[in-house]
Amino acid sequence: MEIIKNNSWLMLFVLFTCFSLKSHVSFGADTISANQSLSGDQTIVSKGGVFAFGFFNPAPGKSSNYYIGMWYNKVSERTIVWVANREQPVSDRFSSVLRIHYGNLVLFNESKLPIWSTNWTATSGRSVDAVLLNEGNLVLRDLSNNLSEPLWQSFDHPAHTWIPGMKLTFNKRNNVSQLLTSWKNKENPAPGLFSLELAPDGSNQYVILWNRSEQYWRSGPWDDNAKIFSLVPEMTLNYIYNFSYVSNENESYFTYSVKDSTYTSRFIMDVSGQVKQMNWLPTNSWFLFWSQPRQQCEVYAFCGQFSTCNEQTERFCSCLKGFQQKSVSDWNLEDFSGGCVRKTPLQCENNSLANGKSDQFFQYINMNLPKHPQSVAVGGIRECETHCLNNCSCTAYAYKDNACSIWVGSFVGLQQLQGGGDTIYIKLAASEFESPKNNKGVVIGSVVGSVAVVALIGLIMLVYLRRRKTATVTTKTVEGSLVAFAYKDLQTATKNFSEKLGGGGFGSVFKGVLPNSSLIAVKKLESWSQGEKQFRTEVSTIGNIQHVNLVRLLGFCSEGTSRLLVYDFMPNGSLDSHLFTEKDSDFLDWKTRYQIALGTARGLAYLHEKCRDCIIHCDIKPENILLDAEFCPKVSDFGLAKLVGREFSRVLTTMRGTRGYLAPEWISGVAITAKADVYSYGMMLFEFVSGRRNSHESEDGKVKFFPSWAAKQIVEGSNLISLLDPRLEGNADEEELARLCNVACWCIQDDETHRPSMGQVVQILEGVLDVTLPPIPRALQVMVDDHEHVVFFTESSSSQSSLSKSNNSTASAQAKSTTLSRSS
Q1: pLDDT for the residue 776
Q2: Would the CA dihedral through 157, 160, 166, 171 be positive or negative?
Q3: Could you tell me which residues are annotated as the binding site?
Q4: pLDDT score of 609
Q5: What is the mean pLDDT of the chain?
Q6: Beta strands in 14-96, from DSSP E residues, in sequence order
Q7: How far lies 468's CA from each of 155, 474, 511, 531, 605, in Å?
Q8: If residue 323 lies in a helix (H) or strand (E), which one and from where to where?
Q9: Do the beta carbons of residue 745 and residue 755 sit within 8 Å?
């Protein structure tokens, strides 16, 4: 009898336990039913295992706040894509619960108060549940009608992430836009100041707004033929997405899908105020592929009030003189929106300073001025200053083009430029200028200093006038082999710049003849601010380097505002005029093309590996490869070049170069290495093979991208002769063609660590190294084989020990298994 009683208690315990477990979601389920709830560390996971949903802490160990949200389940780095209770976190996830309540999905906090709900108008008697779909959409559905539209879905309520399949819609019936809204900072998902939305004016473009009021970026209208937004040319680099834009009488929206379902990609409205495209790499990290605006300081009010933004500093933001950070903790989280506050009150703001000294102005030069100034009608800069000084609310003034502008109260958007720009005067308390020394010492010091300055200026003017007189009289050789040309001599040599050879973004090139009958090419830089920077860069970069495959700089001219560069004349012009020509006389045979490819690689290898500083050219393309009388290639146009000290591996710089040849890291805005040149070189090699631009219109009127098709042909082992320029009529060395194609495909790998160096490229093209079959770059990939080769250099074709990997292998294993050795 006792045994039966004990068994009865055991059965009751088991039944109670089962009932208790049933009231909570099992790990791995994708649905929350009416009799289930979500709490603590429990999650639901979409059927395909792509997304998970549950409680999370965005700053473990730093914050006690928890949110209910969605993240990638198969991505090793916790990446949140959607948050329900962005503005109302909970502090105890075990006492909080998410469950179906009267037809809605409702989140109750630890005090059992509802703080978030799907909030649709539920009708009595309706049975509903919530399911997490594999595309990342949380759906509330009516169980009595499986074919009906969702009662509610998270896709209609985006947070800061835009994933494939999601629509960002403008509803024309109620004039309501769906927004992507940034987090407040990287540890707080509350809505921030920056948002992306479809413009409500019907212009078929997206805009980014600050505080839903100030627009500082737009995509440009949608071009349905090119399938891009007109001001986002980077979209032409897309080979893995399908984009579509829909506009009808009810709504307008843009959406996208990924051609390869194994590819993980997302767009986010970042805390930086930039919209970014992020791709998950096999190296277990997110890769920034694209961002807009490109420059951080283009984001309106990014640094907050009374601060300045500088692209050349690592942190971008700094307080103006006389101001300090409003919130140090926010700045440490890279949330600069609070800006800066004044350290010392102005004299007019402090009645206790009845006999205090008058406020003064601190000058900032080379600035991009804040928006929204007030115009004041005055007679000159002194009256402009007096007007601001007498107005207690005036905090700054500027005088430009005989016009006075003042800023009343706080201002945002002040940006430090490297050259050019305007001058602004910031009002500060007099104490910000006082010296700790006594006034007598200040007076004496000022007098002595003034006399010294006047004497120094006189001496400088005397030296300048003597040098200018000499410079205008004759051309002379300066340090090294460079010649400082007089402007009038170059004007004579070029017949007053009458024979134009070509031009670019920074100037035009003219043909000239020196008195000794030597032919020269004179590059006349245009645009004072940019031209000067361009001038200094090019002279300092190539003035002291010599290589058979680098264009030789003979000299320069620097007189007044004139900046000119003098080069050897290249009788055969630039490579593009021969590659893409329709003239038979300019047509290049295969042997010449291969030698030009090899010579160009040698020139780049010299820049990257043989100079004292690594020189990254930054703009490799056929237009910048010049050809001498024997068609020997010369890498030219170093105006965009970037020098990197040997102690550094990469450099952070502004975006430069030419669309179609830009490496992904350029577009993403991250620090670059010499591998950016390798990518551009690889893109150019495809044009060596095809004899046409990589992006071109086919006979059926469609725009095709040659590298995408060529990479597939290369990997599949197809007949590479089919890739050749038809004008060659198949006349090419097949071994050289295979070598060139494989190298091109390796050079344009998405991960720069998988690209060869230019020195290795030279050895491959010379036949010293063998190259194995490359994988199709992810950016070009439409379909891949079951295995991809990861070794691109081997000892020789007879002793290859090519390694391969499955698609699930990581790229870190790729890099470790890559080998490089000489042929026997």
Answers
A1: 85
A2: positive
A3: 524
A4: 86
A5: 80
A6: 31-32, 37-38, 43-45, 51-56, 67-72, 80-83
A7: 69, 10, 26, 21, 40
A8: strand 323-325
A9: no
pLDDT of residue 554: 87
Rounded distance between C-alpha atoms, residue 171 and residue 177, angstroms: 6
DSSP string, 496-538: TTTSEEEEETTEEEEEEE-TTS-EEEEEEE-SHHHHHHHHHHH
Q: Looking at residue 822, what is its pLDDT?
A: 34
> For the CA atoms of 291, 235, 257, 278, what is the dihedral angle to 10 degrees?
-20
Structure tokens at 297: 């300081």
| Selected residue with higher pLDDT from 582 and 408 | 408
pLDDT at 354: 43
Whole-Å CA distances, 231 to 228, 302, 353, 739: 8, 22, 54, 37
Contact 235, 225 (CB under 8 A): no
Give one DSSP letter per residue of 628-671, joined into a string.
Answer: -TT--EEE---TT-EEE-TT-S-B-----S-TTS--HHHHHT--
The helix or strand, by DSSP H or E, that contains position 108, with its residue range, turns out to be strand 104-108
CATH 3.30.70.2190 correct for 576-817: no
- Which of the given ranges, 23-37, 88-102, 473-487, 508-522, has the highest pLDDT on average? 88-102
Pick 476-568's CATH classification: 3.30.200.20, 3.40.50.300, 3.30.365.10, 3.40.30.10: 3.30.200.20
Q: Rounded to the nearest 5°, which phi and psi values hold at 428?
A: -130, 160
Rounded to 5°, the CA angle 30-283-782 comes to: 75
Rounded to whole angstroms, how far apart are CA atoms 701 and 51?
A: 40
65-80, pLDDT tens digit by residue? Answer: 999 999 999 999 999 9
Q: What is the pLDDT of residues 437-447, one digit of tens each?
A: 444 444 444 44
Q: What does the block give as tokens for 538? A: 């090019």
Categorize the per-residue pLDDT at 652 as very low, low, confident or very high, splitting at 50, 70 and 90. Answer: very low
Catalytic residue ranges: 619
pLDDT in tens, 269-311: 999 999 998 888 766 778 777 788 988 999 999 999 999 999 8
| Dihedral sign, Cα of residue 589, residue 591, residue 592, residue 594 | positive
C-alpha to C-alpha distances, 453 to 433, 440, 449, 456, nearest whole angstrom: 20, 20, 6, 5
Contact status, residue 254 vs residue 244, Cβ threshold 8 Å? yes
pLDDT band at residue 525 using 50, 70 and 90 as cut-offs: confident
For residue 146, the SS3 value is coil
Q: Tell me, what's the pLDDT at 660?
A: 80
Give the pLDDT band (50/70/90) at residue 473: very low
Asked whether the bond before 664 is cis by omega within 30 degrees of 0, the reply is: no
Q: Where in the chain are the domains?
A: 23-157, 163-294, 307-432, 476-568, 576-817
Q: Are strands 265-269 and 251-258 parallel, antiparallel or unpaired?
A: unpaired
375, containing H or E segment: strand 374-376
Q: What is the rounded CA–CA span in Å between residue 49 and residue 51? A: 6
Q: What are phi and psi of 489, to 5 degrees?
A: -70, -40
Quick one: 23-157 is in which CATH superfamily? Bulb-type lectin domain (2.90.10.10)
Q: Which residues are annotated as a binding site for ATP?
A: 524
Number of Cβ atoms within 10 Å of the Cβ of 446: 10
Tens digits of residue pLDDT in 308-342: 999 877 789 999 999 999 999 999 999 999 999 99
Cα–Cα distances in angstroms (integers) from residue 636 to residues 97, 119, 624, in the given order: 66, 63, 5
Q: 234-243, 365-374, 531-540: lowest mean pLDDT where?
A: 531-540
Task: State residue 640's pLDDT score.
Answer: 56
Phi, psi of 172 (to 5 degrees): -75, -15
pLDDT of residue 610 exceeding 90, the answer is no
> What is the spatial distance between Cα 659 and Cα 680, in angstroms, rounded to a whole number?
10
- Per-residue pLDDT for 3 more than 70? no
